[in-house]
Amino acid sequence: MKILVLGGGIGGMAAAIKLKQAGHAVELVEKSEDWKALGTGLTLSVLTLRALCDLGLQDEIAAQGFVHDGVDIYDQQGNFIRTVLSKRVIADDFPSEGAILRPVLHDILSKKVQEQDIPVFLGDSVSEIRSSLEHGNFVKFESGREQHYDLVVGADGVFSKLRQLLMPEQAAPEYTGQACWRLQFDRPADIVRGRMFQSETMKVGFNPCSPTQMYMYMMECVPKEKVWREPEDLPRIAKLLLQEFEPVLKPYIDSINAETPIIYRPLERVMVNGDWHRGAALLIGDAVHATTPHLGSGAGLAVEDAIVLSQVIDQFGNNLEKVFTVFMQKRLERALFVVETSGEIGRMEIAGESMMARSMLLAKGFEQVTTAYL
Ligand SMILES: Cc1cc2nc3c(=O)[nH]c(=O)nc-3n(C[C@H](O)[C@H](O)[C@H](O)COP(=O)(O)OP(=O)(O)OC[C@H]3O[C@@H](n4cnc5c(N)ncnc54)[C@H](O)[C@@H]3O)c2cc1C
């Protein structure tokens, strides 16, 4: 089939790689001119790490990211509470979770795209699409180019243009009332798995994400409306938010300055109501199921979508009606579980519900996403 993948993020690149490997003629179109990933670390939950390994990236992630078996949990004074270890589901001799710097993962994936000679069109997007199972997709691009494709895969993220064009009835992304902070630090040699500090109201953690780096994560509740912050204000606000952890995190708090890589991002949620396809076009990843990062599994879901799509096309060929039906059967429930469970943990954090109740739901969520997806 001739396939357009719209969006060169994690899900779009995964789809392009898998579909090209399966012998299809794939084109990738990405809106940004420079095609770079911003951000610090990406948590590789069991779900996300396994999906990336299934894509063939195990060696690269082991070398350039950081893999480990779990997290040590402390209170805000630094008293050890417990260690939570994950089950090894990828291989007996390979840990099941970890983290990686987003730009590093982007480089690994984009190299694979280039190695496979997938044509990549940067700085362009879809302006019009007519899509039907009978006639395929007639696509007009913002550049003026016009093409016909048998299948269009939309992986253009949480604010998906393709979703707006194909599914104008769907609600816009919903602000969740929380913002995510990530700060990057040099990794001390003794941080070799996750390390989390929790108070009754907040948790802060470190995740090793490269041989030399780690990042700190924390979630801020900003319930009423989205607050954008100027980059120069971020170090000062981060220090304020971390105050209650000063007894145990003082050296890190003191070291935060204008040079510290800091990401602050208000969080949106999307869960498309009903099918993820219209005509001969299918949406995957954040375009249809953007989750908050409480389970560290949004990127993994997008990669799983790509792998399952390629597998279902192998099975049913260009019978897209069948492909989409089976794809939805395999993907909807799992994506819904992650989006809803993550959303519920966030809601409990905003409502100030007990750390015990939140930890129990988190543990249930992690256990569920460890289950196989293929
Ligand atoms: C703050 C934060 C922290 C997160 N942390 C984690 C984590 O630790 N672990 C995890 O697994 N997940 C995490 N996620 C979720 C994860 O980032 C997403 O689920 C994942 O990036 C989804 O991939 P995607 O390809 O669907 O979308 P994206 O990664 O958003 O990629 C979309 C791509 O499409 C391009 N694009 C956009 N519009 C157009 C257009 N009109 N035409 C063409 N191209 C377009 C964009 O430039 C981009 O390249 C986090 C999300 C957030 C917001």
TrEMBL record:
Residues 2-311 form the FAD-binding domain. It comes from the Bacteria. GO terms for molecular function: FAD binding; monooxygenase activity. PANTHER family: MONOOXYGENASE, PUTATIVE (AFU_ORTHOLOGUE AFUA_6G14510)-RELATED. Keywords: Monooxygenase, Oxidoreductase. InterPro entries: FAD-bd (IPR002938), FAD-dep_Monooxygenase_BioMet (IPR050493), FAD/NAD-bd_sf (IPR036188). Pfam families: FAD_binding_3. NCBIfam families: PRK06847.1. Coiled coil: none annotated. The keyword NAD does not apply. The keyword Cell cycle does not apply. Gene3D superfamilies: FAD/NAD(P)-binding domain. This is FAD-binding domain-containing protein.
